[in-house]
Design a protein that fits this description.
The protein has helices spanning about 15-20, 25-45, 60-70, 80-85, 110-115, 140-155; strands at about 1-5, 85-90, 95-100, 105, 105-110. It is an alpha+beta fold.
C-alpha cells in the first residue's frame, strides 16, 4: 500500500503553505510530514484512540484459528510485521509518499485492512490516519501540521 499525499485543498493553511513553497529545502518538511503519518499508523495497532474508526471484534472462528497458531487474540497482530511496515517510501520537493511493503497474494495487506474487502469478507480495521474518502483525521491533520512547522523552524536556523 502506498499513500501519496497530493494537495487537493489547503490542509496546512495559507501561511504555512507559503512558507513551505519558499523554504530552501521542502524535502525535509515533506519527510517530517510523512514520518508523522507513519508514526500514527504504527501506533494505531496498539492504541485504539489513534485509529480513524473503531475496529470490529474478531469472529470466534478467527480467534480460534489465531490461538491454534499461537498468535493471541488481538486483531491484526500476529507477527507484528504489518504494524512495523508503515514507512516513508519517498519524498521530493512537492510531495511525500508513505506506504507499507506487506502484501498477500499480490494485494496490499495494509490496503485490505484499511479499507476492508468485501470479496474476502474482511472488515475495515484502519490504522492510517485517513478516513475512507482519503481525508486526514483531526489528529492526523494536527500531526502533519506540527511536523511541517517543526521542520520549517529548523530550516530557519
Amino acid at each position: 500500500m502506498k499513500i501519496t499525499v497530493k494537495k487537493t485543498r489547503d490542509l496546512l493553511g495559507p501561511s504555512l503553505s507559503a512558507k513551505l513553497r519558499t523554504c530552501g529545502n521542502p524535502v525535509k518538511a515533506h519527510k517530517a510530514m510523512g514520518l508523522a503519518v507513519v508514526s500514527l499508523a504504527q501506533r494505531a495497532f496498539s492504541q485504539a484512540s489513534l485509529r480513524p474508526a473503531t475496529w470490529p471484534a474478531l469472529k470466534a472462528a478467527t480467534i480460534k484459528a489465531k490461538q491454534r497458531k499461537g498468535y493471541g487474540t488481538k486483531p491484526l497482530i500476529s507477527s507484528g510485521a504489518l504494524a512495523h511496515s508503515p514507512r516513508v517510501v519517498s519524498a521530493d520537493r512537492s510531495s511525500v509518499i508513505v506506504g507499507s511493503d506487506r502484501d498477500v497474494g499480490g494485494h496490499s495487506l495494509a490496503a485490505i485492512h484499511q479499507l476492508g474487502s468485501t470479496d474476502a469478507h474482511i472488515p475495515a480495521r484502519p490504522t492510517w490516519p485517513f478516513d475512507k474518502s482519503g481525508k486526514p483525521t483531526d489528529r492526523g491533520k494536527k500531526s502533519i501540521i506540527a511536523a511541517a512547522r517543526g521542520a520549517l523552524a529548523l530550516e530557519k536556523k
